[in-house]
Amino acid sequence: MRRSRAFDATVRQIARRYSAAGVVAAGLASALPVPAALAQGAVSDGIVKIGILNDQSGVYADFGGKGSVEAAKMAVEDFGGKVLGAPIEVVNADHQNKPDVASNIARQWYDVDKVDTIMELTTSSVALAVQQLSREKKKINMVTGAATSELTGKQCSPYGFHWAYDTYSLAVGTGGALVEAGGKTWYFLTADYAFGHSLEEQTAKFVKSKGGQVLGQVRHPLSTSDFSSFLLQAQASKANIVGLANAGLDTSNAIKQAAEFGIVEGGQRLAALLFTLAEVHGLGLKSANGLVLTEGYYWDLDDKSRPFAERYMKRTGRMPNMVQAGTYSTVAQYLKAVQAAGTDDTDAVAKKLHELPVDDFFGRGGKVLANGRMVHDMYLFEVKKPSESKAPWDYYKHLATIPGDQAFMTVAQSGCQLAN
Amino acid sequence: MTMIFGYPLPALLSQLLIGLINGSFYAMLSLGLAVIFGMLRVINFAHGAQYMLGAFFAWFLLRYFEVGYWPSLILAPLGVALISVVLEKVFLSRVYKLDHLYGLLLTFGLALIIEGMFRHWYGTSGQPYSIPSVFTGALNLGFMILPIYRGWVIVASLVICLATWLLIEKTQFGAYLRAATENPTLVQSFGVNVPRLLTLTYALGAGLAALAGVLAAPIYQVSPLMGQNIIIVVFAVVVIGGMGSILGAVVTGYMLGLVEGLTKVFYPEASSTVIFVIMVVVLLLRPAGLFGKE
C-alpha cells in the first residue's frame, strides 16, 4: 500500500514535470519563426502518412491482409516515395474484424500518429465505423476491401471513397448472370452482419426484378466452420440457386461442404456472390471449377493488368485479387490528388479526388461520383476446370465485361444525401 | 408430415444427426484436454494448435510424399505427439509446480506462435484435402442426405473415445497414471518413472487432438484458423462436463453438438453463443461441472 502510494506520487511528479516541459516547448515553438515551406502549409507535419487498416489474421486475411499493405507500398515506391517534397509513409494494423478495435486504432492514428488517410478497410461493419469517425475527424478514407453499398448510400461521407466493388455490383454481376442462365428460385446462406445483409438484400431485389423468386434464407455467424446444417436447409428448400452471401474462408468452407452433401449433383447451383482469386487458390480448382464470380480485376485479363501482377507476385509469392490491386489504385490516386491540390488539406484533396479521372491498370476510364463511389468496369468470370488451367494461377475464363454505369448505382439510386 | 414445434420431423432428425457429427469433434478434442488436465493439471491452450497441426501433417504427407489418408491417421498423430514430447520436455515440465495460470499462459503463447507461423506460411484461406475415395458420395437416409464420410467420423470418434476410456480405466498403464495423479511421490517410490508418465500423457492428449485434425481435414479447409474456431467451444465443453472428467468430456461433447444442431434450426443466429449460455448456467448452478467431483 505504502509502495503504491509512493509510486503514484512519482508518476504524478514526472507527469507534472513533463507537462511543464511541454508548455515551455509550445511557447518556444510559437515564438520561433516557422520554416518557409511549412508556413505555406503544403504538407501538414512534413509527412504524408497512409494507414492500411484491415484483417491480417482472420477469415479475410488472404482476401486483403498483408497483400494490401504490400500493394500500398508498391504504389508509394512507384510514385517516387515523395509528394510535394514530403516523404510518404505507409503504416498498417490488424483490426481483427472488430469495429471497436478498428475505431480505437483509427482514433490513435488520426489524433496521435498524424495519419492523413485510412484505406482498405475490409469488413463492412468496420468500414462503416471508420468512415463515420473519419467524417467527424475530417479525414479522407478510401475503402477497397469492404462490400456494403451503404458506404456510398445512406451512410456516405464527403471524405469517404469506395473503390474496388460493392454489394450492388456483385448482385448485378453474379446474380444477373445466374438469373439469365435460368436460376429462377433462390435460397440464401448469409453472413450475419452488415455486409451479408446488404449483399442478400440487393441480390434478392435484383432476382425479383428479373422475375425470380426468393424461397428463404438462413443467417450464420461470421467465421463459422461447419455449414452442414445450413446447407441441409438450403437443400430442403429445393431452390435452383443457393446464394452464398458471405466471403473469405466462410465461402470456401460452404462450397467444400456443399460438395459433400451432393448439392450440385442434386441439380442445385451455387452462387458465390463474393469470391476472389485468393479464395479460388485456397479451395483449388477441383472444388471451385464452374463457379461464376464477379471481380473488378484479374491479373491475366490483358497486357495492361499483367505487369503489376507479376511485380506483386515477385514480392509476395501470390497473385493479387481485386482488393489488393484496388488498394494500389487508391494509394496512387490519393497521391495524385495531393500533388494536384498542392496540399494535403482534407477538403482540397477530397475535391481533387472527386474531379480527377481514374486511369490506371485497375480503374480504366474510371470516375468518382458525388457520393464517393468510383465507377469502373467489372468483369464476370467462370473458374476453369483443372484440365483447362495451363499455368499456376491460371484460374479464370472471362465471360463478360459489365460496363461501369451498369455495375454501380447512380447517386440518385444510392440514397446518398450529400449531392443535394 | 409429422411436425414438432412447427418444424417437419425429417428436418429435425437431420439436424440432430449433424449435431452428432459436430459433437464427435467436440468429444474427441475435449477428451484430450480432459486427459491432460486430469493427469498434468495443465490447461492445455495449445490443443487447438495441435488439432490444426494434425490436419496440416496429413496435408503435408499427401502433398509432398503422396501418403494417403489411412497412413496419415496413424502418422500424423505420431508426428504431433513427438513434437509435443519436445514441447513438454523443454517447456511444460518446468511449470508443473507453479500455479495453473503459468501452464495456461505458456500453452497459450505456444499456440499463438504455432498458429502465427502457419498463417505466415500458408495464409488463411486454407489448403484443400479431398475426401478419401472409399468415402465419397452420400447416402439417402430418406429424411436427409448423409455424406458417407461424416458417417465414418461418428463411428471413428465413438471408437476413439471408448478406446481412450478403456486405456485409462482398465489397463496397467492407466492404473499407473491414475495413481500418479493421486500421489506422485508414493508412485515414484514404487519405481515408476513419473516424469516419463506425464510426458507420455501429454503426448497422448496431443495425439488425440491431431487425430481429430486428420478426421476434420477432408471436411473443413486445412487452415491455420481451424483450431481457433473450435477450441473455445471445446473449452466450454470441458468446463460444462467438469474439468478433468473423461466421461464428462465425452458425454458433454456429444450433448452440446446436439443442442447446437437444434439451435441452428430454431434460431441460427444464436448457434455460436448457445454453448456459452449453457456454460454460464452450469457454472452458476453446479460450479464443478455436470460430471465433476464437488
TrEMBL record, chain B:
What superkingdom does the record give?
A: Bacteria
Question: What InterPro entries does UniProt report for this protein, alphabetically?
Answer: ABC_transp_permease, BCAA_transport_permease
Membrane protein topology class: Multi-pass membrane protein
Q: Which Pfam families match?
A: BPD_transp_2
- Enumerate the transmembrane spans: 12-35, 42-62, 68-88, 100-122, 151-168, 200-220, 232-259, 265-285
Question: Tell me, what is one Gene Ontology molecular-function annotation carried by this entry?
Answer: transmembrane transporter activity
Tell me where in or outside the cell this protein is found.
Cell membrane
Task: Give the family from UniProt.
Answer: Belongs to the binding-protein-dependent transport system permease family. LivHM subfamily.
What is the official name of this protein in its record? Branched-chain amino acid ABC transporter permease
Specify the species. Chelatococcus reniformis
